[in-house]
């Protein structure tokens, strides 16, 4: 397909293919029927007829000469006299004078009262021709027959490659709905609502697909991002007011698709003082959070073991800093990360810690 064919919407391809198919079938039916009827005259009987009225005239229309032949003849079968003006039954009417002049140097002319040979149907004598069988078929009819078949076939194949009939119907409905929304002033949001979206869904919403149909049908991409030209084309095609056309242009999807100018992204808000902290403060906060989590873990273990803390030992605050090992006579500094007995809640250094969750004195 060429570029122009790609720009034609699918909902136009299918009607064109269907209409051409109907016309093609009609032409094929007419040509085949008339050709078969003409071939059947090969076995008709012949008799002598008389030309009652003959007229041959030409008309020059400025581009060429057009000639036409009118002939009326009579013939007698038994006691019955029949009148006819049929030369042949083929799809294209042939001139009897041209047919009789084939192979002759000067041709043949006819006048009223001349005798001619008439071929008639023996079972229905009122049906007759002057040119029987294959002689009454114009071979240009076969070329028309070929075109009547090939042209609709090509259009049907192209339409099917574009999509199905149901898809074409849906596309037309979406386009109609979009046109109604535009005319009703519902085509898009105001200029203050035009925002940039980095990603969109693959199929888009029904309204976005309708916008795409309008954009493709009017070939708005070819207007080089000219809002005034786009607005004028929409007004001309849909008979819209300037306000309605502007409403369509201000649609977020339309502006993104046509790459029209959009407002810049708003600046990032300044960080508050509470969000700006020094590395030392952040590190201290992390350590405190870790100690608090350890306290929660210890409380959970104590609850699961069913151990109650004695009143004589008060747990030290976990974030209170450093202290000393509570083993008698030991001056080793300990922190909240060292061993703590789950029964007496005292903290011990590495050398005096218990082998289980309780200290040696409580075991």
Count of domains? 3
Q: Let me know the largest β-sheet.
A: 5 strands, antiparallel
State the helix count: 10
Q: Return Rg in Å.
A: 49 Å
| Oligomeric form | single chain
Approximate shape: elongated
Low-confidence stretches: 186-203, 263-267, 272-278, 292-298, 300-320
Total strands: the figure is: 9
Mean pLDDT: 76
Query: Can you list the strand order of the major beta sheet?
Result: 3-2-1-4-5
Secondary-structure element pattern, one letter each: HHEEEHEEHHHHHHHEEEE
Strand fraction equals: 15-25%
Helix content range: 40-55%
Class by SSE composition = alpha+beta
**Terminus-to-terminus distance:** 90 Å
What is this structure, in a nutshell?
By secondary structure, the protein is of the alpha+beta class. 40% of the residues lie in helices and 15% in strands.
Structure characterization notes:
The protein has 363 residues and is α+β, with helices and mostly antiparallel strands. It has three domains: 11-143, no CATH class; 165-257, no CATH class; 307-363, no CATH class. Helix content is 40%, strand content 15%. Strand 6 and strand 7 (333-334) form a beta hairpin.
What's the arrangement of secondary structure elements?
Layout: H1 3-7, H2 10-39, E1 45-60, E2 65-77, E3 80-84, H3 96-100, E4 115-121, E5 124-129, H4 140-162, H5 165-183, H6 206-217, H7 227-238, H8 242-249, H9 252-257, H10 279-305, E6 323-324, E7 333-334, E8 339-340, E9 347-348
Antiparallel strand pairs: 1-2, 1-4, 2-3, 4-5, 6-7, 8-9
């Amino acid at each position: 397909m060429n570029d122009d064919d790609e720009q034609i919407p699918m909902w136009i391809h299918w009607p064109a293919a269907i209409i051409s198919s109907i016309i093609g079938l009609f032409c094929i039916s007419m040509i085949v029927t008339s050709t078969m009827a003409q071939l059947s005259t090969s076995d008709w009987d012949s008799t002598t007829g008389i030309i009652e009225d003959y007229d041959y005239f030409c008309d020059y229309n400025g581009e060429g000469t057009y000639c036409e032949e009118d002939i009326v003849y009579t013939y007698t079968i038994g006691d019955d006299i029949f009148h006819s003006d049929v030369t042949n039954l083929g799809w294209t009417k042939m001139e009897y004078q041209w047919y009789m002049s084939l192979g002759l140097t000067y041709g043949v002319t006819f006048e009223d009262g001349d005798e001619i040979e008439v071929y008639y149907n023996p079972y229905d004598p009122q049906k007759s021709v002057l040119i029987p069988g294959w002689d009454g078929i114009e071979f240009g009819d076969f070329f028309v027959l070929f075109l009547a078949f090939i042209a609709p076939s090509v259009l049907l194949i192209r339409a099917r490659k574009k999509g199905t009939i149901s898809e074409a119907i849906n596309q037309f409905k979406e386009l109609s709905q979009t046109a109604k929304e535009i005319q009703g002033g519902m085509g898009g949001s105001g200029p203050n609502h035009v925002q940039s979206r980095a990603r969109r869904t693959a199929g888009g919403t029904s309204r976005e697909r309708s916008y795409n149909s309008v954009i493709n049908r009017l070939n708005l991409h070819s207007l080089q991002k000219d809002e005034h030209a786009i607005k004028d084309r929409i007004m001309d095609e849909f008979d819209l007011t300037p306000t309605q056309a502007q409403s369509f242009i201000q649609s977020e999807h339309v502006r993104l698709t046509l790459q029209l100018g959009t407002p810049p992204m708003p600046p990032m808000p300044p960080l508050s003082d509470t969000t700006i902290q020094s590395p030392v403060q952040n590190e201290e906060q992390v350590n405190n959070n870790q100690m608090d989590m350890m306290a929660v873990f210890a409380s959970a273990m104590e609850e699961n073991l069913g151990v109650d803390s004695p009143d004589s030992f008060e747990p030290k605050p976990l974030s209170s800093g450093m202290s000393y090992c509570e083993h008698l006579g030991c001056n080793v500094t300990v922190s909240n990360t060292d061993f703590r007995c789950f029964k007496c809640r005292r903290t011990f250094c590495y050398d005096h810690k218990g082998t289980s969750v309780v200290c040696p004195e409580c075991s």
